User: Which sequence fits this backbone?
């Protein structure tokens, strides 16, 4: 095998420091389909036990822990896969129903389904009409406004 000298030096420095100096994020894709939002996160090579999805108020936090596959005592030739803990947060609008959020992990892909809150959906409002009504405001009880005499 042949290796690029500069990359070998960079890799050696990273291994000597015991940290990976690069910053990695969980890549996402999000879109709306009908009455729900779909969020897809790539988490290849991660066990379901190492993925955590939490909802607090209107914030969804995805935490992924990627561990090395090699064990102590193995002679590691190349170590370029990102590992450690990766956190991604999504801020949900008030129109989404976070209490009904569903998560599924399969083939290295985490899928979140976030339904739109039915009460926030657009709806047609019926308009009532009264022949000969004047311009007095209507109160929440449906009666015409104005002074009441008792």
Assistant:
């Amino acid at each position: 095998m042949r290796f690029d000298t500069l990359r070998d030096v960079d890799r050696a420095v990273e291994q000597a420091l015991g940290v990976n100096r690069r910053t990695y994020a969980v890549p996402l894709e999000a879109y709306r389909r009908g009455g729900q939002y779909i969020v897809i996160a790539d988490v290849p090579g991660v066990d379901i036990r190492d993925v955590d999805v939490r909802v607090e108020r209107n914030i969804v936090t995805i935490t992924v822990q990627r561990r090395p596959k090699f064990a102590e005592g193995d002679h590691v030739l190349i170590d370029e896969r990102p590992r450690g803990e990766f956190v991604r947060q999504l801020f949900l609008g008030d129109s989404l129903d976070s209490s009904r959020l569903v998560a599924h992990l399969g083939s290295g892909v985490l899928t979140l389904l976030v339904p739109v809150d039915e009460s926030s959906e657009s709806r047609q409002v019926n308009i009532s009409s009264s022949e000969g009504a004047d311009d007095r405001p209507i109160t929440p009880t449906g009666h015409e406004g104005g002074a009441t005499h008792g």
Summary: The mean pLDDT is 81. The chain is about 10% helix and 30% strand.
